[in-house]
Design a protein that fits this description.
By secondary structure, this protein is an alpha+beta fold. The protein has helices at residues 103-115, 121-132, 138-154, 156-159, 162-173, 195-206, 216-231, 235-240, 247-257, 264-276, 281-289, 292-312, 325-336, 341-344, 346-352, 354-357, and strands at residues 2-7, 14-22, 35-40, 46-49, 63-73, 82-88, 175-180, 186-191, 390-392, 398-400. Helix 6 (195-206) crosses helix 7 and helix 12 (292-312) packs parallel to helix 15 (346-352).
Length: 403
């Protein structure tokens, strides 16, 4: 945990954004990218930022990462607003075994990669035992690893956070235009959300949420409401949906971007709600994104996308790929098996891929085939506001963890 301290006047509410970035450590194999918002209520002077460290088998000595505060509201940023954190390795030499082969490590890393949080004890024990119960039966172990891995995408927690973010971006901005050479060169509609946007926004909705713990439903509902209210105020959304659009134009554009999931009556109701003030723009966007028909239609495409975001921690068209050919292949295969990821062997392929496994052990590039500093380009880091208070960060974090 990193502690952020507010000093000076503390009788008002103030807000500050934060994000992590690479130093010599990378978000792909050393730590989990983190971004979010800290809200200080009147009288509050400290907030904590959770940081997740990955365990690999590379001997890398001390590595560094950065954390930056920005976009303060009701506050001014103290010094330093960016600080360097130190990660101390727990490996004296490169390990011969891949940590991800250990059931407990695999499960813990899935909490990091798919749910963006540290595992809770009951969940960690439950999913680990699913694999450990196989004993030395390798066929059983392989199948359980696949099932446990897929369960994180299928979980309520991910469906209500990460998958919702993917559908919000589709509803707001439609599809990206990608190139594929699978079965011949052609253009294809690809998911428009990018990894850096996805991680930051998913963490906003998932903040302090642990499904099945007391009050989780109220917390995630509050997070969703706050997120969509902020999302429609962003420059990108405002440019796509100018304020002079009529309620009908606004709803119809969202519906078109989303692939027309709304029935005529659903469409008309949203137009009416927006026109008479029963719903805000953000609430209408959320209603389209949560439409059951969109949920069903987008499910397989998002499942494939999360193989890249979760296991490989990159966009489908990023190195070593240069286009959407691989994405197109897996989506075609998954659709061909009606969404059956076991018959399609999709999860199995990503789990056993050298690109995934080399995040943790055995790769000539030592887990970092391409640095993840593209995180620095995301809209979150643009600009900062200064008003009346101060924030400070400790100079460094020392964590005994793998590379």
């Amino acid at each position: 945990m990193i502690t952020v301290t507010r000093s000076g006047q503390t009788d008002n509410t103030s807000v500050v954004r934060y994000f992590t970035s690479d130093g010599t450590a990378t978000q792909r194999s050393d730590y989990t990218f983190a971004a979010g918002t800290l809200t200080f209520r009147p009288g509050e002077t400290q907030k904590q930022i959770p940081l997740l460290i990955s365990d690999d088998a590379y001997a890398e000595a001390m590595e560094t990462m950065n954390i930056t505060l920005l976009n303060a509201r009701g506050a001014s940023l103290g010094s330093p607003s960016t600080t360097t954190l130190q990660i101390l390795d727990n490996d004296s030499g490169d390990g011969s075994a891949n940590p991800i082969d250990d059931p407990s490590t695999l499960v813990g890393e899935h909490y990091h990669d798919f749910l963006n949080r540290q595992s809770d004890t009951s969940g960690q024990n439950f999913w680990t035992q699913q694999i450990a119960s196989c004993g030395n039966d390798q066929q059983c172990i392989e199948q359980k690893r696949i099932n446990v891995s897929a369960a994180f995408y299928l979980s309520i927690e991910f469906q209500e956070t990460g998958y919702l973010v993917e559908r919000i971006y589709k509803s707001a901005f439609g599809d990206a235009n990608g190139l594929s050479t699978f079965n011949g060169a052609h253009q294809m509609a690809a998911p428009i959300v990018r990894l850096e946007e996805f991680l930051a926004d998913t963490q906003e909705i998932a903040q302090d949420v642990v499904v099945l713990q007391p009050g989780w439903e109220d917390k995630i509902e509050a997070n969703k409401r706050a997120f969509v209210a902020e999302f429609v105020q962003r420059d990108r959304f405002a440019a796509a949906f100018p304020s002079n659009l009529t309620p009908a134009e606004f709803v119809d554009k969202l519906n078109t971007n989303a692939g027309n999931p709304l029935s005529p009556s659903e469409r008309d109701q949203l137009v009416s709600d927006l026109a008479n003030g029963a719903r805000t723009r953000g609430e209408v966007l959320r209603a389209v994104a949560e439409d059951p028909d969109l949920n069903k239609a987008e499910f397989n495409r998002a499942f494939v996308l999360m193989q890249y975001f979760g296991y490989l921690r990159r966009n489908p068209d990023s190195a070593p790929d240069s286009d959407y050919t691989g994405f197109d292949f897996w989506l075609t295969k998954l659709n061909g098996f009606n969404g059956d990821f076991i018959k399609a062997e999709m999860v199995k392929a990503f789990l056993s891929s050298s690109e995934y496994r080399e995040r943790f052990q055995g790769g000539a590039s030592r887990g970092n085939p391409s640095r993840a500093n593209a995180m620095m380009s995301m809209p979150l880091v643009r600009g900062a506001l200064a008003e009346s208070l101060w924030y400070t960060l400790p100079i460094s974090l020392v964590r005994n963890a793998g590379g």
